[in-house]
Amino acid sequence: MADRETPEDRLGGYVDILRQASATGRRLTRTELESRRAQGQLAAETGLPLRGLIRDHLAAAQRVRTRSQAPLLAVVEQAVDAFVEGYERSQRQAVRQEEAARREFIDDLLYGRSGLGLLAERAERFGLRLSQAHAVAVAAGPEPYGDGYPVARRIEEAVLGRFGNRHILLATKDGSLICVAPGDRPDVLAYFAKQAHAATDGGRVAIGRSHPGPGGVVHSYEEALNALDLAERMGLEGPVLHACDLLVYPVLSRDRQAMADLVESVLGPLHQARGGHKPLLDTLIAYFDSGCVATEAARRLSLSVRALTYRLGRIHTLTGADPADPADRYTLQTAVIGSRLLGWPDATA
């Protein structure tokens, strides 16, 4: 709409409709109402503020002369209501289109499904500069996160309220809440992790390493997802996991067949134990997780130290490897880690 237009021009025939309808005391026709909705939609698309447009409607109504004010007021109410309906409909459509564009961008960003140049260009619209390094944190709660959920909204408000929109992107994906931040701002992801854990009363957050370029977000996101998966399989404790602290596990599991052979060779004899392999495997897990401190391992297993010592002796007898011997300990511990990574013996049967 041109700057020289008068308020009446912006209202698109509204004054004529008022005069014709109020002169006879009739209600607005379906065609007139639809024209007002269309005018409201056009005003929204043009970016005109609704408050000023309502003021223009009321001012125009005051200039229309009629003997009876009652019919005029009824017509004004109809016309303004239809105009606002069209205006709001346009805004809802714009919001849906923006949400769809944002969702598509997030999918492309996290899975690298778009050309890097085009992706970087689209990222600027959402406040990211993909030429810089980025790191990604993924929060998984007891219940899936979803767009607009109170918990997700509360975490987002807390993070953006503290750091503003300084190249930070928060979104949901596959039931998880994701935060993308510049690689030189670990404080953002640390605060996000703190808020996510507190808001979900026990949720867990994994933070990927910082990586440069458009592909860096994908790399960091995959590291965070893998860290959550490792935590589940390995029974790792702690509300926040850092991918940089877990790099040994992908190395150990890189040759799956070799690891499976090691696990079966070292731990396979535990099947011969009375009661099966599980009590002795649990004993090894608790022993290594407690830093090979017998009293702590016994406490974790709700055993006496004497009972724990007996189990360690049975493990030595069956496997030929002594958990208390440094030379054997490394082989046993590696096999135990492998069993947890592979889900032995069920997943390797």
UniProtKB/TrEMBL annotation:
Q: Which residues form a coiled coil?
A: none
Annotated PucR C-terminal helix-turn-helix domain ranges read 280-336
InterPro entries recorded for this chain? CdaR-like_regulators, CdaR_GGDEF, PucR_C-HTH_dom, PucR_C-HTH_sf
One Pfam assignment: GGDEF_2
Domain of life of the organism encoding this protein = Bacteria
All copies of the CdaR GGDEF-like domain together span: 118-230
What protein family does this chain belong to? Answer: Belongs to the CdaR family.
Name-wise, this protein is Helix-turn-helix domain-containing protein
